[in-house]
Amino acid sequence: AAAEQIRVGLPPVEGTPPILCLITIAIGLVAVLVDTLAVAAAAPAATGLVLLCVYAVPAAIAEDILPWWTFLLSAAAFAGLLAVDGNHRHRRWRNRDAPGLGNSASTLSAPVGVVAAAIAMGLVIGMAVTGVGTVGRLPGADGSGRGGAGGFGVEPFTQLRGLLDQGENVELFKVYGMGADKRLLRAFTLDTYTPNKGWGLAQNGRAQQGVQANLPLPPVKGDDGAGPGREIRIEPTNWVDNWLPIYGVPRTIGGLADNWLYDPVGGAVFTTTKQSAPAYTETAAIKEPSKDELRNDDAQLAEVPPQFVQVDRVDPRVAAKAKQLTENEPNNFDKAQAIWSFFTAQNGFVYDTKTAEATDSDALADFVLNGKRGFCEQFASAMAVMLRSVGIPSRVAIGFTSGTPKGDHLSISSEDAHAWVEVYFQTKGWVSFDPTPLVDGRAVVPPYLQTDPSSTSANDTQEVPSAPASSAPATGTPRDPGADTGADGSGNQQDEEPLWPAILAGVLGGLAAALTVVAIVRSRLRYRALMRSAPSPDHGFLDNQNVTNWLPLIAIGLWVVAFAFLAAWVSWWFALALVVVLGGLGTPTTIREIKRRLRLQKIASHSSAAADAAWRELMDECADRGLPLSDGDTVRVAGRKVVEKHRLDEEGRSGLRTVIGVVEASWYSDKPADDQALGPAFDEVRKSLKRNAPMSWKGRLFPRSLRRRDK
User: Fold this and answer.
1) Is the separation of the CB atoms in 378 and 355 below 8 Å?
2) What top-level class would CATH report for the domain 156-447?
3) HEC readout, 481-549
4) d(CA 361, CA 368)
5) Cys bridge to 353: 58, 164, 332, 637, which one at CB 3.0-4.6 A?
């Protein structure tokens, strides 16, 4: 039953007993799986993938972007899992043998590191090269989508406050057969108003019904079938959604599969799942009524579906304003026109891609009476509520403006996405009123709203004669208010993002990759020579210890800086957070690594201080592993502690005996120590420590040896 409800319903699915049963079973299975991974399999970090899937469900369907702290909390929690995953694999844990003896800790530390690096790279690269729209983007990002166009859809809801940003402009449809006519292309309509939120579908769309769209469609108000129909061909290009936009009142729609339905009440073509649609041909009645016809055509409310009349909890100030505007008008058309005329520049309204700062607890009253700044969703939402408050049936339509002529067709893009109002009349059906004041050539004013209808034919349209000065497009990416304008007064330039952070990140990343390859090649050459028990061949600068000992550190530093610049290209705060986190976690490790490599360089160069450097480094290695050696211990006593606590194997013990002999000779003998044997012997000791006493993540990130003072 739950599967069938999910198959035929529209999200969000109602919480019926079958759905609740399915969710309970799923969450129970998640709990069992997490417990199995964390306890039975002794791999707590692996639970991160399962929990990520659960976390992704509410994150994906949330109407608003999640707070920034949810991201940081999740990242910190997973970092804790990684730390636990490393700590619990020690040979000695809470004074008893821990699971995973042998080489498990050392073999698992590398995959954990790879996973951690992959997470960091995925966050930065994923945010940099993918276009994710307005939902899901990290806060502080500029909002311009990058990457492929992918699919575009519109959500069945309007908002009363916020920022309009659809990212990169993408062509969605090619329309053939409209000629020079400028018409609004309707995708769907909204019938239910929620205070302080906006307009949506009744019961979240679950009650929506329809007939097969590829069969002859039932007649609806506004088309008696007597007039000529216009044949229009629409070719979707980057459109993926539940809805298919149509013009006017459709009579037939050809080219669609059987799963596409037509809702004559809502005036929408829809299906139950988002999908790409084929090209389709609509035969539509698009004749516009005259002003006189509408004045004599008030709707009989008893015949109107109740969802188009009801409106609850409207702020009394908004209702009073609507009544004031319409109290002297004799019919519904003149009342609707009076409210439509209210949203103009003369009354202080301004089209903008961002609403004004909130000054009132009621978003609708704040927009209508105070802020008077917003985009099409606010204008359409406000007018529809005001119409219903004075008893006029209305709804909000979501779709597209007329598009841009290109050759023999109209190109409709994501920048053309739009919202307007439709008012119901008894015989003419739903009639469009667009209250949004646009000046970029996309406004559509039908003949019944024009001030001088005699100058145009019945089906011609013209632009709004009086609209506020604004250089923003109808919807989509905001234009630069200071951009140069052409002869028509419309802006033709957009803000250009600086590319130098991305270019510099690429250069540094390339250099880091080259140094990484050099370091790996050098390591492999030395390993092969060691396996053959032969001296390493001369590879020029690759054998220069002063250079190659520092290659890994230099490469890591370049990677960090490259990722920081790449993050800055996405979001300045993300770059700052990345630098702070990496700096906080990496500074102790970097200091420790620098000290280690300075000592190893002394050992490799057979310096007079080589023996002392080797012993200090051995003490620090043990301190980082939880075995601090006292400066009061003799060399031999300290050596016994290392062998016992860290369980050195035979190779490690042999190397340690050599190191102890060289150190004692250096400190207490007048004869020079055999410094030629020191380097290989010390390498054997370090390798044995790695094999038998692998270092924890805590020891790597926060070395205890930094608390010691070299004497």
Assistant:
1) yes
2) alpha beta
3) CCCCECCCCCECCCCCCCCHHHHHHHHHHHHHHHHHHHHHHHHHHHHHHHHCCCCCCCCHHHHCHHHHC
4) 13
5) 164
